[in-house]
Amino acid sequence: LDSRRVKVVEVGPRDGLQNEKAVISTDVKVELIERLVKGGLRCVESGSFVSPKWVPQMASTADVLQSSRLSALRSTHKDLSLPVLVPNIKGLDSLLALPPNLTDEIAVFVSASEGFSRANLNCSVAESLSRLEPVFRTARDRGLKVRGYVSVVLGCPFDGRVEPQQVAHVAKALRDLGAYEVSLGDTIGVGVPRGWDEVVGACEQQGVPARQLAAHCHDTYGTALASILHCVSQLGIRTVDSSIAALGGCPYSPGATGNVATEDVLYALSASEIPTTVLAFDELCQVGEWISAELGRENGSRVGKAMKGR
Ligand code: HMG
Ligand code: MG
């Protein structure tokens, strides 16, 4: 494998949909995952086991995972990963109460700032890290891989500037707990290449190399692609999170728009001759058109719109 190859983690069915007000049927969620996988994506974050009072849209995650259509996908694609987000041991217990082998991976999330930690997890950063200890332990016992997210790495809607050292501290804590990869979330989409230099540099100084990091950009200020190209071509990051049709926005991040669009990331990487793990670009553009129509939204992907006009 080309060591420059970039892995794309699709977060649309989770990060993209969690903020939608209207109830989206389990069928549509399953069909979205199915289409994304048929479009060549092999890591598709498929839901979260969080409090349904806090994030009602994700309440159907157990149904989504248990759908027979996803079982069929799992048996066809042995390399498929359908991670789900869990905030605490209760979330992991809900997953483990289901039949086995619905997923091989969970994702946990910690904030780099105190303000966002309160809003998103209702506890301090230190408390959230200690609450994750049993989650990591149980996941290890059950053979589940754990991906860690750090939120608000380039700015917090409540606390403002976030120190790169604080991001690095949380990233290292997650790695030391057992996360195989730490995804750095620019939750409010304010990042630019210079900020990523500082954050990734601070993580590396703490002993978390760029190869264990992922860039998770929201595109609120239109700088996500600039940041991603910089992270990949200059900083050695090899995993990028994105969302089909730029769906999304975090419920606890006022004003944040969607994640950077998967189609836009794939176009920018391929036009820069940076290989990715995804091949079926045209199909994915159609998936973006389809889900935008299902949700009654304009397609948030620039590339998706351009491809439609061709
Ligand atoms: P809390 O209220 O402090 O928790 O919420 P609690 O332990 O006091 O429990 C309160 C109630 O929630 C109880 O129910 C629990 O049973 C229930 P009640 O007795 O009132 O009926 N509960 C749960 N129910 C289902 N699943 C669970 C669970 N845990 C407790 N796992 C809690 C704490 C973490 C649960 C809450 O704050 C929560 O669910 N937060 C989720 C927030 C969320 O999903 N945010 C979006 C995802 S993160 C994100 O988008 C950022 C990311 O994309 C990266 C980036 O962009 O930066 C990853
Ligand atoms: Mg996010």
TrEMBL record:
Pathway: Metabolic intermediate metabolism; (S)-3-hydroxy-3-methylglutaryl-CoA degradation; acetoacetate from (S)-3-hydroxy-3-methylglutaryl-CoA: step 1/1
EC number assigned by the record: 4.1.3.4
PROSITE patterns linked: PYR_CT
Domain Pyruvate carboxyltransferase span(s) in chain numbering: 6-285
Keywords noted in UniProt: Lyase, Metal-binding
Catalysed transformations (reactions): (3S)-3-hydroxy-3-methylglutaryl-CoA = acetoacetate + acetyl-CoA
InterPro entries noted in UniProt: Aldolase_TIM, HMGL, PYR_CT
Leading EC class: lyase
GO molecular-function terms, A-Z: hydroxymethylglutaryl-CoA lyase activity; metal ion binding
Pfam families: HMGL-like
Alphabetical GO biological process terms: ketone body biosynthetic process; L-leucine catabolic process
Homology family: Belongs to the HMG-CoA lyase family.
PANTHER family assigned to the protein according to its UniProt record, in alphabetical order: HYDROXYMETHYLGLUTARYL-COA LYASE (PTHR42738:SF7)
Name of the protein this chain belongs to: hydroxymethylglutaryl-CoA lyase
